């Protein structure tokens, strides 16, 4: 059988390439196959008859993507994906979440998936937000989220272990995602791998597996687990533009962070920064957890672009969201990519918090590499101190010794000393070889 690409098919049918990819992912093009990450469509495949218009709320995706890529025209937004606040009160528990007994209800999947991440609240009101969740299972998931995002991996793992086979899809998916990341800093790599596999198999035997929103819920957790571990996405992952419009505001914000992170890993720093900054503007309420992550990806982009003043503003914005509730986990997770900004901004004024962040960094990064390096066959360095890693990362990004020294408030000779130490540990002799061992 002869095939053609998604691009050629899009030109033949007079539609966008992205829509062709979406139709393939939804199984609506007979005979379409995914080969080496790209769709191959039979030459005799027929254009699906049901070319329904996209929901109006999808315009927000077009606006975000257009702004992120520097497009001159943006589309209007006049609708939003449903959130807990939009759900009729007669069907809800506290905070507007539908009852978890209604496992066949699509909205239920989203209203209860990662409930704390998906909740707006003022910094300092995290615990109060959790206490308003009266359903015991959803309350337990939110408590596990709080433990994880505040740096208590042991308690987060303990809480979620009993929920990995929970009958409710949203509880099960949330528990698996938290359990994966909680076990990394604990060194329980086999448990993390088990939960990672559970995330990818969770929908295979449940009645609502064919619904678009249930698929999107699974895709959300799949993207989060793969991209943040810098692992390849599953071959059957749906296009992101089919996922975003289905998510409620909090999860959508975190999904946009994940996409920004993916752009960062591709070296598309300006586009990633535009995506993150646009995502921070679209919600009228504050969603602290996803917004912390969005600000941190913006720091990473700005440091890669050598825009240190902007990086500093984003880091302080993230810190203002995080510190009142102690939500410091994200800072430890991203330390190696923040280009010394934690040392420059946090260490001096908040030394005790900085020590906790560094402890998280060492524990998390050790577990992260044990999953990432064997799977990708990459050699991200695992024997450098945090300062050596920071200096080496900046050097690998093209910063001079003088620029690094000025940023970290150390001399160029001290930078040179750190690099020499890194070279010895990595077994290399020149600056150009650092790229093999730094985070990408």
What does this structure look like?
The chain has 440 residues and is mainly alpha-helical. The chain folds into 3 domains: 50 residues; 185 residues; 127 residues, no CATH class. Helix content is 57%, strand content 2%. The chain contains 21 helices and 3 strands. A hairpin with a 2-residue loop joins β2 and β3. α6 packs antiparallel against α7 and α12 runs parallel beside α14.
Low-confidence stretches: 50-107, 372-378
Overall SS class: mainly alpha
Order of helices and strands: EHHEEHHHHHHHHHHHHHHHHHHH
Strand runs, count: 3
Shape: globular
Looking across the biggest beta sheet, what order are the strands in?
1-3-2
Biggest sheet features: 3 strands, antiparallel
**Average pLDDT for all residues:** 76
Measured distance between first and last alpha carbons: 38 Å
- How many discrete domains? 3
Radius of gyration based on Cα positions: 22 Å
Beta-strand content:
under 5%
- Helix run count: 21
């Amino acid at each position: 059988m002869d095939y053609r690409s998604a691009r050629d098919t899009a030109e033949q049918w007079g539609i966008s390439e992205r829509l062709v990819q979406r139709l393939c992912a939804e199984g609506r093009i007979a005979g379409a196959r995914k080969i080496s990450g790209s769709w191959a469509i039979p030459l005799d495949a027929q254009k699906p008859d049901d070319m329904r218009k996209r929901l109006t709320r999808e315009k927000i995706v077009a606006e975000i993507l257009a702004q992120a890529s520097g497009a001159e025209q943006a589309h209007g937004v006049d609708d939003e994906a449903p959130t807990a606040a939009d759900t009729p009160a007669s069907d809800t528990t506290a905070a507007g979440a539908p009852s978890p007994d209604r496992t066949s209800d699509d909205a239920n999947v989203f209203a209860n998936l990662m409930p704390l991440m998906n909740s707006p609240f003022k910094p300092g009101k995290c615990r109060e937000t959790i206490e308003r969740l009266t359903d015991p299972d959803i309350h337990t998931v939110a408590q596990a989220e709080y433990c994880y995002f505040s740096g208590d991996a042991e308690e987060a793992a303990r809480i979620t272990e009993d929920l990995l086979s929970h009958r409710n899809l949203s509880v099960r998916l949330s528990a698996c995602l938290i359990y994966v990341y909680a076990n990394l800093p604990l060194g329980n790599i086999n448990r993390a791998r088990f939960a990672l596999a559970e995330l990818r198999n969770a929908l295979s035997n449940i009645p609502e597996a064919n619904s678009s929103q249930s698929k999107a819920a699974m895709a959300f957790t799949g993207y989060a687990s793969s991209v943040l571990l810098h692992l390849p996405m599953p071959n059957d992952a749906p296009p992101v533009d089919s996922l975003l419009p289905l998510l409620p505001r909090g999860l959508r914000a975190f999904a946009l962070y994940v996409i920004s992170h993916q752009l960062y890993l591709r070296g598309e720093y300006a586009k990633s920064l535009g995506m993150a900054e646009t995502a921070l503007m679209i919600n009228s309420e504050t969603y602290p957890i996803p917004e912390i992550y969005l600000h941190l990806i913006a720091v990473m982009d700005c440091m890669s672009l050598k825009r240190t003043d902007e990086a500093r503003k984003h880091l302080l914005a993230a810190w203002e969201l995080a510190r009142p509730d102690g939500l410091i986990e994200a800072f430890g997770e991203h330390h190696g990519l923040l280009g010394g900004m934690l040392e420059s901004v946090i260490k001096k004024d908040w030394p005790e918090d900085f020590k906790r962040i560094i402890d998280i960094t060492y524990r998390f990064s050790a577990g992260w590499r044990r999953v990432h390096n064997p799977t990708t066959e990459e050699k991200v360095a695992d024997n450098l101190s945090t300062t050596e890693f920071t200096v080496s990362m900046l050097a690998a990004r093209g910063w001079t010794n003088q620029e690094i020294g000025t940023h970290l408030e150390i001399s160029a000779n001290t930078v040179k000393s750190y690099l020499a130490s890194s070279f010895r540990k990595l077994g290399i002799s020149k600056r150009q070889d650092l790229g093999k061992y730094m985070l990408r």
